[in-house]
From TrEMBL:
The protein, known as: HTH deoR-type domain-containing protein
PANTHER family on file: GLYCEROL-3-PHOSPHATE REGULON REPRESSOR (PTHR30363:SF4), HTH-TYPE TRANSCRIPTIONAL REGULATOR SRLR-RELATED (PTHR30363)
GO terms, molecular function: DNA binding; DNA-binding transcription factor activity
Pfam families membership: DeoRC, HTH_DeoR
Keyword Endoplasmic reticulum among UniProt keywords: no
Matches recorded under SMART domains: DeoRC, HTH_DEOR
Record InterPro entries: Carb_Metab_HTH_regulators, DeoR-like_C, DeoR_HTH, NagB/RpiA_transferase-like, Tscrpt_reg_HTH_DeoR_CS, WH-like_DNA-bd_sf, WH_DNA-bd_sf
Gene3D superfamilies the UniProt entry points to: 3.40.50.1360, Winged helix-like DNA-binding domain superfamily/Winged helix DNA-binding domain
Keywords noted in UniProt: DNA-binding, Repressor, Transcription, Transcription regulation
Domain HTH deoR-type: 3-58
């Protein structure tokens, strides 16, 4: 079997099963495990999948920089942001992650809502300037320009002083086995600290992020209580999380 055909079949197996195991694929295709591992390495370098021990998972497509992601904000992200904003109750302390979906959340917070909003995203904070009753706490640190968020030791130290009601988290991958993942090591550490600082964590995940993975783990699925996704997301994508008793909200 030609390399191109093997890779196409690997992608088909990933789409069908949500993961591939190198040993099983080698047996299926009648080639050595070393050959399949080489294929997986090359495909990972091309951004086609995320390698894990023994095989691979689907790669998250949410890797573009902030400006590009902002320019293609979908109706689904608008709906997710709107649904999440409705969950914020008067008097609560909530944490908003960075990213384009969290920015939509901020834009849909009612102007008369009295609450405290904590964020490490300058772009999210700016959306709340015209909210007179909202207290905004902006976490500082080193600016991670890809996502326009603060990261690093200073950010984590500030986060550790906060006890919030809810953290609305954005990630690039949500997978039944890999958990919640993102593409930068330091950003993952900050998201993890934000999750620890809140009584509950709710994930904002458009459908292309479900059953996908990125290199760095944020938290396991046991660390969250809910996922908000688009109304049109296929049931097959959300079923694994519903089986884990994670509340799925369709926006």
């Amino acid at each position: 079997m030609l390399t191109t055909h093997r890779k196409q079949q690997i992608l088909s197996l990933l789409k069908e099963n949500g993961q591939v195991v190198a040993k099983h694929v080698s047996q299926l295709m009648g080639v050595s495990e070393d050959t399949i591992r080489r294929d997986l390495r090359e495909m990972a370098q091309e951004g086609l999948l995320q390698r894990v021990h023994g095989g691979a998972l689907p790669a998250s497509p949410a890797t573009a920089d902030f400006a590009r992601r902002e320019s293609i904000t979908s109706e689904g992200k608008l709906a997710i942001g709107r649904a999440a904003a409705k969950m914020i109750q008067p008097g609560q302390v909530v944490i908003l992650d960075g990213g384009t979906t969290a920015r939509q959340l901020a834009r849909h917070i009612p102007h008369d809502l009295r609450a405290t909003i904590v964020t490490h995203s300058p772009t999210v904070a700016l959306e709340l300037i015209e909210h007179p009753l909202a207290e905004v706490i902006l976490i500082g640190g080193r600016l991670f320009k890809h996502s326009i968020v603060a990261v690093g030791a200073a950010a984590i130290e500030s986060i550790e002083q906060i006890h919030a009601d809810t953290f609305f988290m954005g990630v690039t991958g949500v997978h039944p086995k890999a958990g919640l993942t993102t593409g930068d090591y330091e950003e993952a550490a900050v998201k993890r600290a934000l999750s620890r600082a809140a009584a509950e964590t709710i994930v904002l995940a458009s459908s292309e992020k479900l059953n996908a993975a990125s290199p760095y783990v944020v938290v396991s699925l046991a660390g969250i209580s809910g996922i908000i996704t688009e109304r049109a997301t296929p049931a097959v994508l959300t079923m694994p999380y519903e089986k884990m008793n994670i509340q799925i909200t369709r926006a």
